[in-house]
Input
Amino acid sequence: MLFVNEVPYRFRQGLRLIDVAGEVKPDADLYIVNGHPSSPSAVLSDGDSCWLIRKGEKPPADELERLLYARHTPGVHNKVKAASVGIMGLGGLGSLVAVALARVGVGHLLLADFDLVEPSNLNRQQYFIDQIGEKKTEALKHNLERINPYLRIDTIDVVLTEKLIPELFKEVDVLAECFDGAEMKAAALRCVLGPLAGKGFVGASGLAGYEDSNIIRTRKIRDRVYLVGDGETEAKPGQGLMAPRVGVAAHHQANQVLRLLLDVA
Amino acid sequence: MKIVCNGKEREVKEGLSIEALILELELNPDTVVVECNGAIVLREDYAEQSLSEGSVLELIRFVGGG
Output
């Protein structure tokens, strides 16, 4: 059995993509097999998952959702769609983690930040000039909906504390610690080693400046608990936070969240 | 007395509290997570909980930025 644009299609030996396209989508000019672009003359195997796309075409709503995941590794989307991830802090780390997880289709995002978008955020955070002065929760939710309207996004705009975190995040599968301050980073880890034990957790420490990207690591702390960063490079005068290196750390986090959701970590 | 801190043996004063050890290491207690003999220590207990001979500590120190 094949899947063509997620619809079952009968397999036979020697079947080529172009043959399937002729029947299902003759005007296709982009051919994807098992998450990878392919030649139309490619011969298919039983169990292949194919996407036939016409570039530039805005698909009908029911097809759009499926097309958003055409380049995913097969099997990923169904798992992440059923998952819930909490993101604490929507700054340089959190806004990027949220975008990455929205693009990959995590079904439920619980986003927390008390703050407003301001101009000095824009050197690294996923907001825009016309959003200055808005609540980060609202601005980010708006940005995510423009990327993937098929997600459920809830927001928290109160200041988080070590007491509040276990109450507010008790339902999520994985928690991303994206705070700016070291005290809340420590508090968040204490929560996941204590009252929220069992949940997946990815925190971050040491990601400032323009030091070598290669010293940013994802380190296992405990079962399902990880820390990202170099552990040393603190944000301080003379060592700022900038998009490239913060982005390296944020995407280490997002990938580790994904690995936790897919049970490989 | 001898304790183990992050895998390394360390000589400390008898009855040293966790908070005092953290300060000895020139760290800010609010930014440090502590496991003592495998159990997470609550922040409010740092000053009151004393170390004993052979205590095994794991400290994780966080730096700011995100």
In short: Chain A touches chain B through 36 residues (CB under 8 Å).
